Each structure stands twice: as structure tokens, then as C-alpha cells.
UniProtKB/TrEMBL annotation:
Keywords: Signal. Residues 1-20 form the signal peptide. Pfam families: ABC_sub_bind (PF04392). This is Sugar ABC transporter ATPase. InterPro entries: ABC_transpt-TYRBP-like.
């Protein structure tokens, strides 16, 4: 009898283990990309071991646009082979290229990192979709200039991005690319999207001469050199850190550091991933994606580099300093 009981217990344990579902996270970028590293950690913090994790990387920060569809096809084949219980589509390229295919399935889809309007991809018509909108906190971050560079009444800042589809979608919540500038209080904000690393360098070096008090750096991961090859993001930031004639701030956590931007009111990939994880848990508990409204990051985090603040002799107001996280 005891042997039978033990066998039943083992069968129960095996059944519980074998019934553990799987999740496929299809990522627009590459495994080492800081945003991806952070949101994956956020998802795992919430979901823990309730699902077996698998990943497909489309590598669209490094590959030319003409190869994106092929990368999407490879990710789709991985889905067909794996047959997971849930799929995460991470960031605009994966969502844009794969959402219509997944809409024809019944598998629950959670997206994250979407800069575009969901209607651009007809997501609002897909009943098996829910997700997290990525809305960088541009205006609040830029207003930080009024508090940290308080010696000038009227200020002029440059918002600088690469010319990728993701960058164009991201800045639409702040300013239309064709508009090129707007005003936030006493601060004039100009936008520039750089096609190449050479153009980026030229823009940075001319910033002070053109009257800018600061640069706000967004995304810089698709800049190409004179041969058309992708420039390392770390090289872009290291060069900018060494050569910028004015202080430079950032909108994302991964862009802040001793060899990068000084700081900012930033969007954190880890927290963004946690939001996606909460949606995943609700689906695992029986909720339908169509019953779960889209969500977005409600707040950011003040983050500063000690070395950067010291380099530019920036005084952080006490009320901000008390709420800030410091790096290096």
C-alpha cells in the first residue's frame, strides 16, 4: 500500500511538472541589448518558474531593414516548432511584422515596448492580444533642465535620436518629426534624427555653437559608419561623453552611466517587464487577453551618474536628490 501511495505521489509531481507551460518571447533586438536584458529580468521576477522560457531574437538593431522580414519568418518557424502556451512580442519591429500572423491563432499574446499607436497595427481588433505601451517620459525629463541648469531663464535643448522606425514612433508623443521644435515652459526643444554616425558627431560638436544648453539623447543603436556598417552603441555613447560641449541627459535607464549620459527622469526596462509579467499572470489565472486593457508605465525614476554630475558641476535640487538613484 505504501508503495502504491508513493507511486501516486510521484505521478502527481511528474504531472504537475509536465503540465508547466512554455512561453516564447520574440524580441525585436538582440540578447545583449540592455533594454531586453532588463525587461526579461522584470518578467521573470513576476512569472518566476510558472512557465518555461524560450527566446527568439530578430536582431533588428544590427541588421539592415531588408532582412527584417526574414528574421520574422525565422521567429515564426520557432513558434510553430515550439508550440508555446503564450507568446510575448517585444518592441515595435516584432509587433509590426508578426502581429497579423498571431491574430489568426488562438494563442494569448502579450506585447511590450510598443512605441507606436496600437491602431497602426490593428491591435485593437485582435481579441487574443493585450500588452504594455512604451511611453518615454519625455516632457518630465526635459523639464529637469529647468531645475538642474537654473542659472538661465530661457533654455534651448536638442533632442537627438537615430533615424530608426522605433525612434520616429517614440518621438511622436513629444513632437512630430516634421515639426522639429516645440516649447515647454521656458525651454525651446528642437528635434533631430541622425542617419549616420558622422552626422551624429557633427550635430553633437555643433551643439554649443548653435546655442543649445543641453542635449537629450534618445536611441542611437542604428547609426551606420561611412561604409554602411552598424556602429557600436557603446562607441557612440563613449564618443558623445568625451566630446559633447554641453551636458547630455537621457530618457532610458540603459543610457545613463559614467561613460554615457549624466542622468534623467528615465524609463526602466525592468519595471516595464514587470508590468508585462503581471498581465501574463492574469492570463495564466484564466483571464482572456481581450478582458485586459492595455497598460503603460505610470512613472519613471530619477537616475544620475555621479561622475557625470561632477564633470559638469551640476547641482541636483534636494527634493530630486532625495528621490534619485545614483550609478558609479
Amino acid at each position: 500500500m505504501r508503495s502504491v501511495s508513493l507511486l501516486l505521489l510521484l505521478l502527481h509531481i511528474c504531472t504537475s511538472y509536465c503540465q508547466a507551460g512554455s512561453i516564447l518571447i520574440i524580441e525585436s533586438y538582440h540578447q545583449e541589448y540592455p533594454w531586453d536584458v532588463n525587461f526579461n529580468q522584470g518578467i521573470r521576477t513576476i512569472v518566476k518558474d510558472k512557465l518555461e522560457f524560450h527566446h527568439a531574437y530578430m536582431n533588428t538593431k544590427r541588421l539592415p531593414t531588408v532582412e527584417f522580414i526574414q528574421q520574422a519568418d525565422l521567429a515564426w518557424q520557432q513558434y510553430l516548432t515550439l508550440k508555446p502556451d503564450l507568446v510575448v512580442l517585444a518592441d515595435d519591429n516584432a509587433i509590426r511584422l508578426l502581429s497579423s500572423r498571431f491574430a489568426k491563432t488562438e494563442i494569448p499574446i502579450v506585447f511590450l515596448g510598443l512605441n507606436s499607436n496600437p491602431r497602426d497595427y490593428d491591435l485593437h481588433t485582435f481579441t487574443n492580444f493585450t500588452g504594455v505601451l512604451e511611453r518615454p517620459l519625455f516632457k518630465r525629463s526635459i523639464l529637469l533642465v529647468n531645475q538642474t541648469l537654473a542659472n538661465r531663464k530661457d533654455k534651448k535643448v536638442l533632442v537627438l535620436f537615430d533615424n530608426s522606425r522605433t525612434s520616429k514612433a517614440a518621438v511622436e508623443s513629444l513632437i512630430q518629426p516634421e515639426q522639429e521644435q516645440l516649447r515647454l515652459g521656458n525651454t525651446q526643444v528642437n528635434l533631430e534624427l541622425s542617419l549616420s554616425y558622422t552626422a551624429w558627431q557633427r550635430t553633437v560638436l555643433a551643439a554649443k555653437e548653435k546655442g543649445y544648453d543641453a542635449i537629450y539623447i534618445g536611441l542611437y543603436h542604428t547609426l551606420v559608419d561611412k561604409h554602411g556598417s552598424n556602429t557600436s552603441p557603446s562607441e557612440v555613447m563613449t564618443w558623445t561623453n568625451r566630446n559633447s560641449p554641453v551636458p547630455h541627459f537621457g530618457f532610458w535607464e540603459f543610457s545613463i552611466g559614467s561613460k554615457s549620459n549624466i542622468g534623467g527622469y528615465v524609463l526602466d526596462g525592468f519595471e516595464h517587464g514587470k508590468l508585462a509579467g503581471e498581465l501574463i499572470l492574469q492570463i495564466l489565472a484564466g483571464k482572456e487577453p481581450s478582458d485586459l486593457p492595455y497598460i503603460s508605465d505610470k512613472q519613471g525614476q530619477y537616475l544620475f551618474s555621479t561622475a557625470g554630475v561632477e564633470k559638469w558641476s551640476i547641482v541636483i535640487p534636494k527634493e530630486i536628490k532625495a528621490k534619485s538613484i545614483w550609478k558609479d
